[in-house]
Design goal:
The protein is an alpha+beta fold. Among the domains are: 250 residues, Rossmann fold; 89 residues, Ribosomal Protein S8, Chain: A, domain 1. Helices cover 39% and strands 13% of the residues. The chain is built from 22 helices and 24 strands. The longest helix has 28 residues.
Length: 797
């Protein structure tokens, strides 16, 4: 999912979660984790648009050191500093990596062409190619050495780095950086001596980190990230890291917000309400909007309210689901089908919008939610002649702004009474039953004195248009008509889906084997992703072999799929490089492999197209487009490399192998010279006091992973100092549209609006002053800070 869009949506729905860091307002943290790839990218190519931007490797390494040191100094971890660089990824992730790198090469070539067409003088020095930030390249090998040098230097010279464990999991260790961090947390939590109140801080830019932090079910968890800007101010800030604003996103508050929103289900659920299970289901729902391993479900776009839609559907079906959907990473397929069945209603509305009037269905998810509130779908109307006459009377009432109400007999048939009620609701005018002695009348009234907005007039015009185009059929023929229309509608709906599968994936909708493959792969993918999040890699070789997901209405009868995974092995670094790099970046490969990308007779030449299609697929930003390039065939790729591996140099063979995580500790008994690998830029460390050894993360060895909260965890008002809680003041919450201004524009989405219950409501100002002046209190709720009350005033005193 798009990182800025997800962060914005979260900030609009739960506004208090993010805290701007100021010097004396940072909680104490035990562990600091850095997802290093965000730092590497920030320091190596801060401005991809400037075709003349150049930076040396030495400068990149120095900036990375400075960034790490700045984050460490800001947070000051007490026990552990864990830095994780992306190693080789599971096959499922490689598809996204491949698409990004092909896209990066295409964008770089297009930017150069644009600059040349404008007559700009381009530097003769080659620009930095960010595709080298991939395991196995010379750049990553150098970076690994430089990071080890930097840590040795800091441990030797900076006392703040001495009394804690420092771990580096470099690109030589398989796995994505954030998932190596989560593996450590997951396994540490299973140990008998684990502190349930350990305080975690995780730095990174990926939206997935919010999910990973939540599923740890460790409440004292915050995400550290740079300030995010939107709109016209969305320009990369150049300059020193010291001038960069940082925010903490407090997952302790996010947990309480989710509880505030979903605890309304307590009275409806026939089973026990459990916040930890709600959080697990929240993580599952977010997967449908898009993730690094599966495409989003069709027409579910976060910018158009898709997450709000998912929450609405979830609240509707959960009381009837007999339990939660995600059990610590294991899907309950039957309950999942209930979600898809409800979303099928939404998909049919999308079909009607595309098939009938696309403009009318702009902002589809928000419109669907409004329609759900009325519990009535917007479809083509069929009216009896009698109903057509009723419509003409009510339309005339509104257009003439008449103050005279219309009376209809209350003994009208149910069909006609419902028709009048729905029409009045659509037009936003008053209707009720009026008693006149023994007689009752349906009473429809237009308030001619009420001021109405331009939006109301536009809405009514659309309603009139809908009723004007309604088919008029004699009452005795309506059932036959509706059945004929239903069959025709179903045929068109199937045709609409057939075109999607044919156009997007060349799949024959009428072929059950082809359809089972895509549906089965998608459900496998959901289970694979959850397993990856909660337990680790279920299969290194599994991947979703399509660029698009199935239609929601086809995700049914899912228990017929037997989901099994084979663990397999990770790609080697060079195999991954061959799998994700375009020809444009072949220089990062050993010379022996480069011709496989260019030789017309190469057995895998089809993996490296020079031109490819970008499909916006309903998205608005170009970077969100689907990159239509062929998937790698693992067997063919490995076979093509096999004969050439023996010709690699020893240095290349070392880069194509795996390594270990390293532990760095201060040892006053160590006194040695640590040589610099870049002596012209960094000096040797003459009296190095750092001990380096292989680090193995805690193992399970028969222990079970802990689901949910650990025993002894402190929550709410008992939470750790510096970790905010909404529960320190009595409050209520309501989900509604508020127009909250989070990023210099009013939100169009719903917000959890919190109202604090005032304990001083019945006290006068004087009594409050006598009680509080001179006393120490907490201010800045929910980010509490001590303050002394100097004076109290109101509008009078």
């Amino acid at each position: 999912m798009g990182i800025p869009k997800f962060f914005r949506w979260m900030s609009e729905r739960y506004p208090l979660c993010s805290q701007l860091i100021t010097e004396n307002r940072i909680p104490e943290f035990d562990n600091l984790y850095l997802d290093m790839n965000g730092i590497i990218h920030n320091c190596s190519h801060p401005n991809d648009v400037d075709t003349n931007f150049r930076i040396s490797e030495d400068r990149i390494f120095l900036d990375i050191f400075n960034y790490i040191d700045h984050l460490f100094t800001k947070i000051k971890p007490k026990q552990l500093f864990f830095m994780a660089v992306d190693g080789v990824a599971p096959r499922a992730k490689m598809n996204q990596q491949r698409a990004r790198r092909f896209r990066t090469a295409k964008d770089a070539a297009e930017n150069t062409k644009k600059a040349e067409s404008k007559g700009e003088a381009l530097s003769k020095e080659a620009p930095f190619d960010s595709n080298c930030i991939t395991p196995g390249t010379e750049f990553m090998a150098k970076l690994s050495l430089q990071l080890q040098y930097f840590i040795n230097k800091k441990v030797t010279e900076d006392s703040n780095w001495r009394d804690i464990k420092i771990v580096l999991s470099g690109h030589e260790v398989p796995g994505e950086g954030e998932h190596k961090i989560m593996e450590y947390i997951r396994n540490a939590k299973a140990q008998s001596d684990y502190n349930p109140n350990v305080r975690h801080c995780l730095y990174g830019l990926d939206a997935d980190l919010i999910m990973l932090g939540l599923l740890s079910h460790d409440p004292h968890f915050a995400l550290l990230r740079e300030e995010v800007t939107f709109g016209s101010s969305k320009k990369k800030k150049q300059g020193r890291v010291e001038s960069q604003n940082f925010f903490l996103m407090h997952l302790s508050l996010l947990r309480e917000y989710l509880d505030l929103e979903f605890s309304l289900l307590k009275e409806e659920l026939p089973f026990e309400y459990n916040l930890e299970r709600i959080i697990d289901d929240f993580i599952l729902l977010a997967l449908f909007i898009g993730n690094d391993f599966l495409p989003h479900l069709p027409n579910l776009h976060i910018a158009e309210g898709a997450l709000g839609l998912m929450f609405h559907v979830y609240k509707k079906i959960l009381p009837f689901a007999d339990g939660y959907i995600n059990d610590g990473g294991i899907l309950d397929i039957k309950r999942l089908e209930m979600i898809f069945k409800e979303l099928t209603i939404f998909e049919r509305d999308i079909y009607e919008g595309e098939f009938v009037d696309l403009k009318y269905f702009k902002g589809k998810q928000r419109k669907y939610l409004e329609m759900m509130e009325k519990d009535r779908r917007n479809k083509k109307l069929v009216l009896t002649p009698k109903q057509k006459g009723i419509y003409e009377q009510i339309k005339n009432l509104v257009e003439m702004c008449s103050s005279e109400p219309i009376h209809f007999p209350a003994d009208y048939p149910a069909r006609d009474r419902v028709f009048i009620k729905n029409l009045a609701e659509d037009l936003d005018i008053h209707q009720s039953i009026l008693e006149d002695g023994e007689n009752k009348h349906l009473y429809v009234e237009y308030d001619s004195e009420e001021e109405e907005s331009e939006e109301t007039f536009e809405m009514r015009e659309k309603v009139f248009e809908k009723y004007e185009t309604a088919d008029v059929v004699e009452e005795e023929n309506i059932e036959e008509y509706e059945e004929r229309e239903r069959r025709k509608d179903e045929e068109n709906f199937v045709k609409w889906k057939k075109e999607y599968y044919e156009d997007k994936m060349q799949i024959d909708y009428e072929d059950p084997e082809q359809m089972d493959r895509i549906i089965g792969s998608y459900i496998e993918g959901l289970q694979w992703v959850l397993h990856y999040y909660y337990n680790g890699v279920a299969s290194w070789g599994w991947f979703y072999p399509y660029h698009y997901s199935p239609k929601i209405s086809d995700l049914n009868d899912l228990e017929r799929f037997d989901i099994q995974f084979e663990s397999g092995r990770p790609f080697t670094p060079f195999e991954q490089l061959m799998g994700v790099l375009p020809e444009f970046s072949k220089k990062f490969l050993p010379v022996e492999y480069q011709d496989l990308m260019t030789d017309p007779n190469s057995p895998i030449i089809d993996f490296y197209p020079k031109d490819f299609n970008l499909d916006m697929n309903g998205k608005k930003q170009e970077w969100e487009a689907i990159v239509n390039i062929p998937f790698i065939n693992q067997k063919r790729l490995v076979a093509a490399l096999k004969d050439k591996k023996e010709r690699l140099t020893e240095e290349e063979k070392k880069r194509d192998s795996f390594g270990d995580s390293l532990l760095f500790t201060y040892d006053s008994n160590v006194d040695e010279v640590y040589p610099s690998s870049l002596p012209s830029f960094f000096p040797d460390i003459i009296h190095c006091r750092c001990r380096t050894e292989v680090y193995n993360i805690p193992t399970l060895e028969g222990k079970k992973l802990v689901k949910g909260l650990c025993n002894g965890v402190q929550l709410g008002v008992k939470a750790m100092a510096g970790f905010p809680s909404l529960k320190t003041l009595s409050h209520t919450g309501e989900l509604r549209k508020h127009g909250v201004n989070v990023f210099n524009s009013e939100s169009k989405n719903e917000t959890m609006v919190i109202t604090i219950i005032n304990p001083f409501e019945d006290m006068n100002t004087g009594d409050i002053a006598r009680e509080k002046v001179g006393k120490i209190i907490f201010v800045g709720w929910p980010f509490l800070q001590e303050g002394i009350v100097q004076a109290i005033s109101d509008e009078q005193y």
